## 1
Amino acid sequence: MLYLALAQASMRKNMAYAWAHMANNVGSALFGVIYIMLWRAAAHGRPLGAFSPRDLESYIAVGQVVLWLTTFLPPYLGIDRHIRTGQIALEFARPVGYMPRVLAAAAGEVAYNAVFRCLPLLAMFTLMGVFPWERVASPGRAAAVAAAFTMAAAMGLLVQYLVGIAGFWTTESRWARRLYFALAMFCGGQLFPLQLMPAGLRDALTWLPFQAMISFPVSVWLGVDTLPAWTSAALWALGLAWISARLTRKAARRLEVQGG
Amino acid sequence: MREALKAAGDGCRTYGIVAASSLRSRAAYTWNFTLSLFFQMLMYSADVAALLLMVRTAGAIGGWGTYDILFLSGLVLASSGVYRVFGSELHNFDKYLVHGEFDGVLIRPAHTLLTVAARSIDVEQGGAFLEGVVLMVLAWRHLAPDLGLGVVDALCAALAVACGAVIWFAVVTATAALGFWTTRIDDLQPVLLYGPETAVSYPLSIYPKAVRWIFQTILPVAFGSYVPAAAILRKGPPLSDLGWCAAVAAASFVAALGLWNLGVRRYTSTGS
Amino acid sequence: MAIIEAERLRKVFTRGQRLFGRKRSDAPVNVEAVRDLSFRIEPGEFVGFLGPNGAGKSTTIKMMTGILHPTSGRVTVDGLSPQADRVRLALRIGVVFGQRTQLWWDLPLRESFRILRAMYRVPPVDFRRRMEMLTELLGLDAFMDMPVRQLSLGQRMRGELAGALLHGPRVLFLDEPTIGLDVTAKAALRQFLRSLNAEVGTTVILTTHDMTDVEELCQRILVINQGTQVFDGSLAELHERVGMPSALRATFREPPDMSRLSDAGGRRSSPDIRVTVLEDGRTVHAEFNRLTCPAPQVLERLRAAGEIVDFSMQEPRLETIIQQFY
């Protein structure tokens, strides 16, 4: 299987840096702990909306893990580099489609993150007693969580792919990526859950793509998911896949006409 | 001693010229510059928005209300924003050690730290500072009538920003200095710099004792954030505590400078 | 009085010793980069430091400029110790690294000079006078207001030189200044360095891999190998010692008949010409010593092997000369 091989290769490439990443994990864990302390102080033992004080801490813990699967991915999946160096022409000429190949390689990165970023975080949050394992007790819940996480990871990859392939028509700004992170964190409800937002804001954000990458998978884990959240995530995933495929075809045609 | 003071004076003058030149050459691209500042402020605003929603929902955090926290976050953003502009070379010190560019620093007739800092000043990173000041002013306008804040308090707030700036500069310098031993610092920065920056944007009282202790001793960033903010916002400690903050700021800079000098000595004897 | 004095200079690096050691199995190894190096350089000399990569010439330059501290031994430049008096010495020397810029990347060249003027405390009168001279000699006018990152390598190197000379240093250290430059840029640079040395009297220390740099510029040559000095003398003396290794390439119409090479009675190489036939079978690479056997004579002899349709002289390679010392 070509795609499996691609995913394995990119996972192995990352293994070389495992120790440096471990040092970085300490930083990531630190942020998780800060936000948990913040909620602990904010909730002050009272429930807020549909969330118990422990839920709020769990929300942050699951969210920190999810971020490594959906948001902290290689910038633009390396497509920008392909375009800049002109390598893209070569990549398009290969017999196997560009988009599935890039996505397969990126899936390998996600798998690497799952093992070397998420597992250490999981272990730490479990030791702190804030990871809500009990919420996925039944096989039904487990299946829902698996589906939601897969959709979320796919969304994360597709967003990076889309921005990457859009590089054919746009120029990179120094701030684009950092601004994207800031918006993704807020609109995705990383610190403040969508469920607790004023109704109008909550409904608006539910139909933006960002919720599918943080708020949606976390909510499914905690069992506070809603039908609109599922619908929005599914529609966006399909929509992004469709747009990405179209743009890839357009880019290929552009390459043929202009010769790169 | 006089010689050293004169050298420091010359170094600062050089630094001033670099700053002015950077600003001039950036200002030539007015549109880009403005846009970049706007993007940054939008970015920091998104973080602040989440925090504000949180305080609004919870009522208060650790006894600090919405505007108290707005003031504290603004203070941290403004003071740490200073190193993003003026310490951008120290912040990105990796390149000096990985590509051996530090050699070029040692041939200059000024202290190595000044020479590095004067290599470039990143005016475009001014967004954090601006956003911080805006947040502080917003909070001030709301809090001043109730707390009876006056001119003295405003001066104290300015002093707090200055103390914070010096302390953050010291942390950035010390982290860069560690690079003389570890070569790479980008893995250290999340733990020593970005994490603490986020942590002290919220009231220190919400953390366990050990964490509070760390931020008040070995990594004394609380003295540029929580401690002065608590004094200015009448949370108990007297305004005179700002004297302590200034002392800690000076001491932490001296300590960072010592570590830096030690690192330079290691570099000149090993060349790596 | 000598302007640079080095006495029994020694530098030992310890490799494989790190705070967070990556290869724990390897014991730290001491590498002696420079050992027992002594020399004196008089004011106004133009000295070339030659040697293969890793011979210790960069380490020596770094010890003379205060970048590295010697493990033992003593060095003084203009009466100052580069280690104890780094800052004071920095005001009296100029340093140019061929591969790195010391100008301000994002600022116009002119701004770099303004910054350096403040940094080196150059009095306004001196600054104006030197700036005028350097601008004229190096032709800086055309790109004075361009950001350094937009300059071509040749333009940038001219800017680097001006930057290193603004404060009127007594000694100029140049580490491979001509690397990567095209032929015209190299020639212009050499012309400038020659007049700087002759007219202003600046002492120049140069490292290079370019034999033409050495031949056109250096009055004195120091060859360093494995951390010690193996030669110290003039270019003429160097040639006396190792000859003038040269090479040419000749292409024959038909594959040459090497057995007909004259003089040595059919031997493929005579003692002063070493001949190798390249892969295409028609091109011949001949190495010879120009002192004992000039190029026309070499061609004459090669002609015996067949009709030559083309030939070219090869740049004399510094490595070839240096190799004679191993």
Note: Residues 22 and 319 of chain C are 35 Å apart (CA to CA).
## 2
Amino acid sequence: MEQLFMASATIIIGVFGCVAYFFLSNMALDALYPPRGPNAGANISRATAIRPWLFLLPAILLLCVYLVYPFFVSVWLSFHDSSGNRFVGAANYTWLLGDEKFRESMKNNMLWLLVVPAASTFFGLLAAALTDRIRWGNLAKALIFMPMAISFIGASVIWKFIYDYRGEGQREIGLLNAMVESFGGSAQTWLTIPFWNNFFLMIVLIWIQTGFAMVILSAALRGIPEETVEAAILDGASPLQIFFKIKVPQIWGTIAVVWTTITITVLKVFDIVLAMTNGQWGTQVLANLMFDWMFRGNDTGRASAIALVIMLLVTPIMIWNIRNARAEMR
Amino acid sequence: MKAKLFAGAAALALVAGGAFAQDLRFAPGEDAKFNWASYEAFKQDLSGQEITILGPWLGPDKDLVESVIAYFEAATGAKVNYNGSDSFEQQIVIDTEAGSPPDIAVFPQPGLARDLAAKGHLVDLGADTATWIRDNYAAGQSWVDLATFPGKDGNSGLFGFFYKVDVKSLVWYVPENFEDAGYEVPATMEDLKALTDKIVADGGTPWCIGLGSGGATGWPATDWVEDMMLRTTTPENYDKWVSNELKFTDAAVVAAIEEYGAFSRNDAYVAGGAAGVASVDFRDSPKGLFASPPQCYMHRQASFIPSFFPEGTVIGEDADFFYFPAYAEKDLGQPVLGAGTVFGLTKDSPAARAFIEFLKTPIAHEIWMAQKGFLTPHKGVNTETYGDPTLKKMGDILLNATTFRFDGSDLMPGAIGAGAFWTGMVDYQGGKAAVDVAADIQKNWDALQ
Amino acid sequence: MDNIAGTKSSLVWTVNLAVIALVVLWTIPTFGLLVSSFRDRDQISASGWWNAAVSSEANEIARAGDADTQLQEGDLWVIAGTVLPEGKGEVSRFGTSSRDPTAYAAGETADLGEGVSLTVATDGSYRLTSTTAFEGRSPRIFFTATTPPRLTTENYARVLGAEGLGRAFLNTMTVTIPATVIPILIAAFAAYALAWMEFPGRALLIAGIVGLLVVPLQLALIPLLKLHNQLGIGKEYIGIWLAHSGFGLPLAVYLLRNYMVGLPREIIESARVDGATDFQIFLKIILPLSFPALASFAIFQFLWVWNDLLVATVFLGNNQDQLVMTGVLRELLGSRGGEWEILATSAFVSIFVPLVVFFAMQKYLVRGLLAGSVK
């Protein structure tokens, strides 16, 4: 009981502390520069200049502490040796360039970046568009969403039951092999087939991320003003035309956001690879390579260097976002 | 069940923090086979002190270690929190680096302890403890050597205390299957190979081997190779190999890898064929022993594997093990490969020191021995306390060993022993030549800073 | 007109079929896990989960009863019993040796030599007879039986009965709720500023936030825990709230800003003209209109925090007051974690709350739509 009380108390204090900040700081600002009286004009413009920062302050603080600060620590570490004590210049980076596993990871990551965001967004859009049109849509959504909700531990067992291989003369407990065998084929060790095994791993992430894409895109589709759609119906447009010519252009921004987010998830994904192959049989990816050097190799220098490469890969997306934001402002 | 659940929930609220009321599994002074004198002699007053131990043991293993800890608590009045973690390796690195370490860490591999010692995160246990180990552990010097690393200042010290040992050189089999087929337990490697061929000739499959282990896939093969090293070359070479004085590309190492391949890469020798070995989960692979008809007759794995046998399997009756034999002709004696967990002091305090002292008492070993899954090199314990004959038999293998060597991959740097070596063995299983695999691993080792 | 109605209903059919196909593809893997959670460990590794619901034929091994259960009948010693303890199923063949486990048809009598013989009937009952008294271990009986499906709820009993699960549930809630609400609140304000307020450096800030999305968590752990320790937060709940909020913030800001930017400009402009301050606009117009986006982010943030183990093990202690559910479930698996049945079951136990959250939030996804169309 005590725990229950403590928990609710802490929850309330935490959440209300947050609300109180926004309320009080805005009230203080209004009291300091009242939008009336002799200096109303100057006060309003001063308040308008300050208010964005009141809105942004907690976010910026948290981001600085929890992400920017570790980022700079990583930069610093990437120029130091395994224990972080001795400056080694660019040694970690030159090592990276010569490392075979790193090249393999780069190659695989590119493959992941091409396939996973595209496939997840496509299936997510498909699911969002179709489920909105049927009566049991909410149930269908929940079922497609389920992989997102399942813990990672659960997901790795799920796919074990799909890809498992037992070998000749034994009963297969992997669904894929059982199917192949029932069609007269012979069982495969799916996760060890060079090159293609990458795709078997990608399927897992696509399976998970589709739910994410679906939820976000479905919210966007529902936000489309009815009038535009109704006008198109009156013009006699077919449902397909409506979807591609009216709806998709209107949610284009959201599609880009979903794509970006999944791209970043792909760059960070390591648990799927770690649990299913640990990067063996030519399936290594950057994030797992980093994890390996961090916790198995105990080399924070190399791990940080790999992390910075991952972050570097995201620059094109950042530039694209800057341009977008500038365009919006006009 | 439901009633039990509710009762549990109610009890939960009442006994929060009731871990103090730990009952001792064997009442002190009762059973004469235990060394209660050492328990009484250890008693001291540390009440009010509290220490935290972080270790890799979870589930049933956690209950076992806590049953030992309970005696320490009872003898001193100190409170011990044992926390188990499946990501122990990550957690201990993060916690020590960040400055919030537990008091004591239980390392599953000495390699990690070496890394932490080098960064100054472990406390030197001192010369007295080293002397104690030397005097009281069988092959004491080797246990001291295994836990002696350079500290942050570069001076070597004893940074770990071995407690709980595993024997790895074991071959598991179903005795009745052997009887049905008229097979004898082989006493030499030559016999084992002859038996392997005989089983194939009889239309059976001799071995079940599985290297799959999620993120750690490949490690079972490294154990095979280490066992083969000990059976094909001198222990001195083994030691040099572990410290990379003897390169991976050395003929002796390549030969050991090929010795393993002679078993695992022969389609007729392994259940499911050589192609399946790398992906079959090591936890699933022993189940072939118990199939009807048997999918295989033998499975080489460490002493922990019975937890993955089918439910209700009685060790010693339904399944048993024999020593993974050595070549008679090579005259390398009876080498045994093993592993063990190391207790390291991550934060110095009187209670933590006292706990290390407690591990020196015979009773700290006997309590766990009397239950299951525990072997010890402590010479002062009463081997009668072993909970089942199987443990005693394993203990005998340990005692009869002419050479005992620690799991080499655990001693190598993490990037090799828990990285390149694993990956290399997976590649080898996939058909890559042993020479190339060895060259790859060596290249990785050379690239370490 | 009929024609149009025809194409319409065929379209409805296509949509329904397509959704069914999609749903089936997406659910089959999870369904396999669900079925597995009702099977015991030996079954899971012996046969595929799709066999769980059908009678299956399998070779099994039983052991005849102990010697002390033998009865003397005339000059014969008899051990009797059944190889199918649950009484269901049908034995087709049996054997006495692992070399030939299907040597005899059910009902036949096998001669084991030395006056011992064995009969196994179709219903599974066996009779082991000997001319001398049995001693030592009884022989194994190999048999091929077709057994009906067998499902068990024992796994659930074990997981739900796990020590400390109730407490851990509370702990998880204590972590999850603030760690979901705080970042949403903070991000909503920031997203509004980035979407509708003009100030220098806005575009750069947005790009910076996108860049921060990719900072790997693993690298941040050590410096942050060090910081927490120095600040004296140590391993308290406040620390994990802040950590989860920090890690979730970039995505929250990014998603919410994108949504808010898409809201009709006229509403905001007209409110400004009416003299509303940004704070008022945010509270009275933007927040209600953004419900779908807030709800969808809430779902994801809740999920991540709920299923997280890594951040919790680093930023919270492992003691009873702080251990989260994922931690308790992990403990059930033991040190080497090969217990697929417990894995499967815990996955379903822990999926329950997130699904409830999903359904609860779905309502708000719709409400956002209504609010949007009212304007």
Note: Chain B touches chain A at residues 13, 16, 89-90, 93, 112, 115, 118-119, 214-218, 271-273, 275-276, 278-281, 288, 295, 413-415, 418-419, 422-423, 426-427, 430, 447-449 (CB under 8 Å).
